[in-house]
UniProtKB/TrEMBL annotation:
Pfam families from the UniProt entry: PASTA
SMART domains: PASTA
Keywords: Membrane, Transmembrane, Transmembrane helix
Residue ranges, annotated region (Disordered): 188-207
CDD domains: PASTA_pknB
The protein's name in its UniProt record: PASTA domain-containing protein
Residue ranges of domain PASTA in the record: 41-108
Residue ranges of the TM segments: 12-34
Length: 207
């Protein structure tokens, strides 16, 4: 049988169909195997773990075949219970695969203290980033007569004057008393007015 006759024969056609069928079956089986091994189509919604204790987190994630890792503790956040989850990654509502690790950060047991920096005679622009870097909050701003405008004259906490080096809790609101920049000009004007009003020693005296 010539090659041309073989290629046009029924035997060749059946062999081609059989090969196609085998490839189709193998492809079908491979896709099912791939779906099984990658757990395709079976995703888990990450729950909201915030404000839960570590025990509650473990119980909740075990039910969903998920795991967790504590990355670190954060400075005390008063709106969250002590030792509860403050942040998590992935975020709540994210779709993940089975056995995915959820990374969490835990609220510390209480506020940490810092030493009050020396802001006296620093400008307001210098004071703000210094306070924020220490986890403190800028509170009420008041002014009093002073030559240096926006220069820090006093630091107060809950109405009480505090000094550089005093220990205070993080997240405290620090009220600042600043100079209004007017006293120098007012004094200069008053001095000038008094000089103009005074009689000159060079003027002749009435006899």
């Amino acid at each position: 049988m010539s090659l041309k006759q073989y290629l046009t024969s029924r035997v060749f056609a059946l062999q081609v169909l059989a090969a196609i069928a085998i490839l189709f079956v193998l492809g079908y089986l491979f896709m099912h195997w791939l779906t099984f091994t990658t757990d395709h189509g079976h995703e888990i919604t990450v729950p909201d773990l915030r404000k839960l204790s570590e025990t509650q987190v473990e119980e909740k994630l075990d039910q969903l075949d998920l795991d967790y890792v504590i990355l670190d503790s954060v400075d005390y956040v008063k709106d969250y219970p002590k030792h509860s989850v403050v942040t998590q990654d992935p975020l709540p509502g994210t779709k993940v695969k089975e056995d995915r690790k959820i990374y969490v950060k835990i609220n510390s047991s209480g506020f940490t203290s810092v030493r009050m920096p020396d802001l006296i005679e620093k400008t307001y622009r210098q004071a703000v980033p210094t306070l924020e870097a220490l986890g403190l909050v800028v509170g009420k701003i008041t002014y009093k007569p002073y030559l240096g405008k926006d220069m820090v004259l006093e630091m107060r906490l809950d109405g009480k004057k505090i000094k550089p080096g005093d220990k205070i809790w993080k997240s405290s609101k620090i009220d600042l008393v600043l100079g209004d920049g007017k006293v120098g000009f007012e004094e200069s004007e008053e001095n000038l007015d008094s000089i103009n009003a005074a009689p000159s020693s060079d003027e002749p005296k009435d006899e």
